[in-house]
Amino acid sequence: MILQRLACALLSAALLTGLACSDDDNPTGGGDIDTTNARSYYLGYTPFPYDVTSQAVQYSYSRIAAETDIVAHHFDDGIPWPEALRGEAFHSNIMNDWQHRVDAAPAGHAIYLALTPISINRDDLAPYKGESPDMALPSPWDSYGFDHDSVKVAYTSYCRRAIDFFSPEFVAIGIEVNLLAKSDTGNLMWADYVELHRHVYQQLKGEYPSLPIMVSFTGMDLIDGFTDADHAVQSQAFADVIGYTDYYGLSMHTVISAFMADSLPPRVLDSVFSLSGKPIAICETSYPAESFSVLGGSLQFNGSPTKQDQFFADLFTACDQYGCEFIINFVIRDYDALWLAMGSPDDINKLWRDTGFYDEDGNARPVLTRWLEALARTRI
After folding, report:
1. Which residues face 172 on adjacent strands?
2. Model pTM score
3. Which of 179, 209, 234, 284 is buried deepest, with most CB atoms within 10 A?
4. CATH number, domain at 177?
């Protein structure tokens, strides 16, 4: 998601104003255990805010406390490359953000930590992160490829420090990695990325043998005809990486496909899920609950609350069948206010604007009932 860059910046700014998060609203504790209607997966949100205020961030964490049992910390806005290489302290803005996330996350929730060395556009090395996110890479980093020895050492160090800080139950060391193969028509960056990924994966598995370490793929790009991706390229990218990931991580935004928000025929999820026998994790997902258009009306998406609810019904069915590990719904509440603050861009950011379980006014959609019913099931 392009919007993730802005989300990270907003979270950093809002969290610095101070937050407190309580478990008092959490309806999931206590009671007898019922194993007749169990689930294998955690259910979680990211703390993505619907507005540029600390109140919006507080709202997100209150919903995480009440409606999930895992929180996703998703970092997709750069790496402190020189500091990670030299073992120096990260900028205080980075560390304050990390600390506030830990402090705001509800006690007892599992943690999914998502990191990536790839840029938000999935077409180059991630930018520099220091005082601000998404800064230009300093020299000589602006000349390094993914396979450079300094990149390997720095990224391994960064992942290690993040893991030690957040103590996650799950960690991704690459986000939507197959999109790099999709954008890299000459296949040069992809080959270098694979070398980096395999190095970092093997190093971290030696240090954290019991920690599930993974990457995520854009699932719809892996099936021929679902998107405009070259199927041969995607199949090779999948084969290059799947042996070096503990889980089959998936980014499932089905609206970004030939189906748009018009239909999702039966067996679509099965087609994606069945590509690997490894444990499946839905690292991020969404479905629009409203109709909208982008690019001057050239693309029309006919989302609705009913379609959104049906998508999650199908997703839960597939995850029950395949024994998924967790599901992360990315947007909690429609971010119309945030979209207006951005200048109301008629671009790709609108694709996720209306995917919340709550509309822009905070009214719950039907899918929330389905989600909470799943949450009430015993996780085993």
Report:
1. 114, 214
2. 0.91
3. 284
4. 3.20.20.80
